[in-house]
Amino acid sequence: MSPTLALTEQLIARSSVTPVDAGCLEILRARLEPLGFVCEILARGPLLDAQLGKGARSDDPQLTVTNLWAKRAGKARPSASATPTLVFAGHTDVVPTGPLNQWGSNPFAPTYKDGRLYGRGAADMKTSIAAFVVAVEEFLAAHPDPELNLAFLLTSDEEGPALDGTVWVCEELQARGETLDYCIVGEPTSVKQTGDMIKNGRRGTMSGKLTVKGIQGHIAYPHLARNPIHQALPALAELAAHRFDEGNAFFPPTSFQISNFHGGTGASNIIPGEVVIDFNFRFCTESTPDALQAKVVRVLQAHGLEFDLQWTIGGLPFLTTPGTLVSAVQAAIQAETGLDTELSTTGGTSDGRFIAKICPQVIELGPPNASIHKIDEHIAIADIEPLKNIYRRAIENLASPSKATV
Ligand SMILES: [Zn+2]
After folding, report:
1. From the CA of 298, how far away is ligand 1's center (Å)?
2. How far is the CA of 330 from the centre of ligand 1 (A)?
3. Which domains does the chain have, with CATH numbers?
4. What's the gap in Å between 104 CA and the centre of ligand 1?
5. From CA 356, how far away is CA 264, in angstroms rounded?
6. pTM value?
């Protein structure tokens, strides 16, 4: 069995349902320390009462988040420029299984069928983590003293609230003055075949909770009431039709979507007193949260609405324009698979948004994502070795930048 497959099996066998790591990071630490990595486990439980901001944290092991920061210093470069740092980032936690009786096999017992490996986390993203580690092992066996610092930033808090994982470790690294140059996140980005798509950015996400106030009354006496549904609809129609921006070469236009619309008392003879609407922006680098919020408020005011509006910014957009890292990864994919990879910024958010704050070049590359978060999550065996080889080739290209031209 290939070392990548064997390590993937070991990780899938740990039932690390978010935020529990279930010992995955200790397995990885045991692989990295013999390679010369200095490993730190950074753990913390969630705030007991975030509202009060008292700072007390739960010590319940079922809630504790575990993070691994591992770094191996490379050789100084002969030129004046500092030795760059490449970090591999990802998560050991997985989403819950859903109904076990719907799975074809135990989600935490690696199972082979029809050329596929089944198990929770097979695609999102335990195979990527195993491939990172084996790629680094192979690279260091061939190049024991590279002019490249290597690092791992792994967390068990990506699929949950994501408050005590990568975002916190990045704050710690920033406080220490740690500098990162290139980051590869192992999220499953491919469509049909490993390497056919990478993410070189992600849109931002911002949600709004809008309460439009009216006056409750008898439906037969509308002149004595004020219908907030009738009042809200034209404003919402205007927002839904509005082009907030045109996007750019890397991003589609910002989108506004309503996810929930709640109003009415349940009775058919009452005009409700208020209506509550949840909406979300997926926004690109052409729009800012401030500008989007201001536009929404202007539209609501122009329609004469009495309203209350609360905002939650889930993440800012990030973009890595083609440069050293994109070229190194494109060349690695081309050499391994013959594919011209597609650059994309679609899909949900990822921890890349936190890393991008302290690392100028971040891309995401992993196996096909068609089965992630589903019953019977799996990865094709044929996708595994190419993934590891692409990662190894990317390291080689970044260790000797003259090779990283496409
Ligand atoms: Zn993931």
Report:
1. 37
2. 21
3. 3-202+317-403 (3.40.630.10), 204-315 (3.30.70.360)
4. 22
5. 44
6. 0.89
